[in-house]
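user: can you give me the structure for this one chain? tokens are fine.
assistant: on it. calling the predictor now.
[tool input]
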Amino acid sequence: MIIEPDPEPDVLLREERAAFDRGEIGFVGVHIDADVHIRDTDQVLTSPGAWGIEDDVDTAVLDQIINEEWSALRAVLKTVGVPTDKLPLEIEREWIEWRT
């Protein structure tokens, strides 16, 4: 689980753009990467990602976004035949990596 700065959010209104350029507000993106081994090849599978999230978003909203990304990645894993029955249904907090 990676949460990292969104350097060019496309959801900005004119007023937000000025505040963003001054560093008064910020945005992040959330995505989950999984290292998997498929048919003698190591692959990195990634959730679709959610971007343009205000960096001071409410924790409950961020948790919901994280869980949606986790569900999306689990669906991708199942589609390519990676077993997910031993994976937790929700993301573990220690898996979250905040990048700056």
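assistant: here you go. The CA atoms of residues 3 and 30 lie 5 Å apart. The beta strands are 2-5, 27-31, 33-38, 41-46, 50-54, 97-98.
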